[in-house]
Write a structure and sequence with these properties.
Layout: H1 10-32, H2 39-46, H3 50-56, H4 60-82, H5 99-114, H6 117-132, H7 134-161, H8 171-174, H9 176-188, H10 195-207
Protein name: TetR/AcrR family transcriptional regulator
Organism: Streptomyces citrinus
């Protein structure tokens, strides 16, 4: 009696194809740039038919966004491995009770990510696509920007409850004091993007830039 052949696992096959497409999209954008990257090129690089891609996504921008989200998840896992005592994950920012140290840790990790060539090219491509395509911009903001910004707001609210941030501060405004300058420097290349800059952003945002009144003798 002959043994039965195993039934092919379509879920595993689909996951392998999806992973190959992610890798191909990220690689091509890094090698030849976003304008020259095509669905056909991604399919050829991934070893799949272009109809496979069109079955899951409607455009190369959508493919790249999914690939980028996956890359972010991998980076989060790597960051958690490097900081087991202060886990970095998509659910919350670190909360050790030291707001300044927690924010510096996060902004330093963000600097490292922004300077990673694997991240830089696709991130700039997605930002450019968002400028040119309003519909895509809404998706880009909702899926890529707002989740991270919401984590900052949540951490600042927790600091308010602990008495470390003034009660009258709006966390939805305050969060931009950390993220917006970093993004602007990255996009416009107006100066060095490093840990020292990240630390200074946190200090300026938390303690202000006005001259402190002299202590009374």
């Amino acid at each position: 009696m002959s043994a039965k052949k195993p039934v092919p696992d379509s879920a595993r096959r689909s996951e392998r194809s999806r992973r190959a497409i992610y890798d191909a999209a990220l690689a091509l954008v890094g090698e030849i740039g976003y304008p020259r990257t095509t669905i056909e090129g991604i399919a050829a690089r991934a070893g799949v038919g272009k109809q496979t891609i069109y079955r899951w996504w409607g455009s190369k921008a959508e493919v790249l966004m999914e690939a980028f989200l996956d890359l972010n998840e991998q980076n989060q896992q790597a960051a958690s491995a490097h900081h087991p005592d202060v886990p970095l994950n998509p659910v919350s920012l670190p909360d050790t009770g030291d707001l300044e140290a927690d924010l510096k840790l996060v902004l330093r990790a963000t600097v490292d990510e922004l300077k990673d060539p694997r991240f830089d090219a696709p991130a700039r491509a997605l930002a450019a696509e968002g400028v040119a395509n309003q519909e895509f911009a809404e998706t880009f903001v909702a899926r890529l920007l707002m989740p991270g910004l919401d984590l900052y707001a949540a951490r600042l609210r927790a600091a308010q409850e602990a008495g470390d941030v003034r009660a009258d501060v709006d966390p939805l405004i305050a969060r931009d004091l950390f993220s917006a300058p970093l993004a602007q420097r990255w996009l416009q290349l107006t100066g060095p993007l490093d840990h020292a800059y990240a630390d200074r952003l946190v200090e300026y945002a938390l303690y202000g830039i006005s001259a402190r009144p002299k202590k009374q003798e």
